[in-house]
């Protein structure tokens, strides 16, 4: 059966994993909105995708801009919360500047939370929606919160908690909310990683287009549900 065309919004969709996700969603026939703090980059990225793609300037830390978003973009069926920062590699919890922690939480946790508040209620009213929060293995308690990046780890573990809370709130509404650990992906954060953004995008798009009755409130790794 052919996939139903939806309108998908990808934050941080102008490059890296976000752009690869936007490109694959577009290739599968969805209308794609590429969101980025830099409006020119967002529009350029959308132009590269072709017809049916649009670029918008959006800073997920700007509450007023996020509040205005629904009026700008209309109905959104798929939200991929990809925008994120990793500012603290090599830091330790007792020594890190807490201003750096605040900046990380503002994007990685509160940015995704703002987006959910702006878009999920309308998904619930329409009876269908998919939300994918891009998490990390460094957020996994099962893996022992590995890595020397305490602010990033805490922000992504908190994003996982938000995922569970949103899934509970939307249970039975037709909206599925999941977090995904895409693994190490070549990007500005990790240029040494073996996995390409396109490979990771395949797993993320699968989570973003789950069939009705699919998992919700889960932590995904490729096609598997993994322990938090």
Automatic annotation (TrEMBL):
Q: State the coiled-coil residue ranges.
A: none
- Highest taxon, organism lineage: Bacteria
What keywords tag this UniProt record?
Answer: Oxidoreductase
Instruction: Fetch the Pfam families from UniProt.
Output: adh_short (PF00106)
- What family is it from? Belongs to the short-chain dehydrogenases/reductases (SDR) family.
Q: What is this protein called?
A: SDR family NAD(P)-dependent oxidoreductase
